[in-house]
Write a structure and sequence with these properties.
- It is built from 1 helix and 10 strands; from the N terminus they run αββββββββββ.
- The longest helix is centred in the first third of the chain and has 19 residues.
- The relative contact order is 0.24.
Length: 166
């Protein structure tokens, strides 16, 4: 009697293990509400920024390491805001932007963002939508369609870069 049970367990336990190991991927970072700031009325119309809300439903931190928005920009960098000598300035985020496990990270004016520099053309509000791709440290890519929108809350320090004289 014990032998048939042992045989049955030997056959079915490995199969049960296979059923439990689903082919579903681990949760990935989600992106919502992307937009690009218009160059209309900008103090520095040769640059702009991409903003987006990111959510990481996984149990591991993810890092936004790069972005690409096609031929609109000669250079694209991930930027962060830091306090230098009592003033908030933006600078390249050398280590990217971390989206903590189970949390949100808003790439927004006055905070981390994707900086588009050396623009190849002006970006009037409502003129177009940019196709951009975000790349994360785990190899995930997110394709975005970001409309060009007016930015009405621009701060004086928004375009101050680390190392520049205000």
């Amino acid at each position: 009697m014990k032998l048939p049970h042992a045989v049955a367990l030997a056959v079915f336990l490995p199969l049960a293990g296979c059923a439990g190991a689903s082919t579903a991927e681990a949760p990935k970072v989600l992106a919502a509400d992307p937009w690009v700031r218009t160059t209309d009325g900008a103090k520095m119309p040769e640059m702009t920024a991409l903003f987006v809300s990111l959510t990481n439903p996984s149990d591991e931190d993810r890092v936004l390491v790069s972005a690409d928005c096609g031929d609109i920009a000669g250079k694209v960098e991930i930027h962060e805001m830091v306090k230098v000598d009592g003033q908030m300035v933006m600078r390249k985020a050398e280590d990217g932007v971390t989206v903590k496990a189970g949390k949100h990270e808003h790439l927004a004016p006055g905070g981390p963002h994707v900086m588009l520099m050396d623009l190849t053309r002006e970006l009037p509000a409502g003129s177009e939508e940019l196709n951009c791709t975000l790349e994360f440290d785990d190899g995930q890519s997110i394709a975005l369609v970001a409309p060009v929108k007016e930015f009405t809350e621009e701060q004086d320090t928004y375009h101050t870069h680390d190392g520049e004289d205000g």
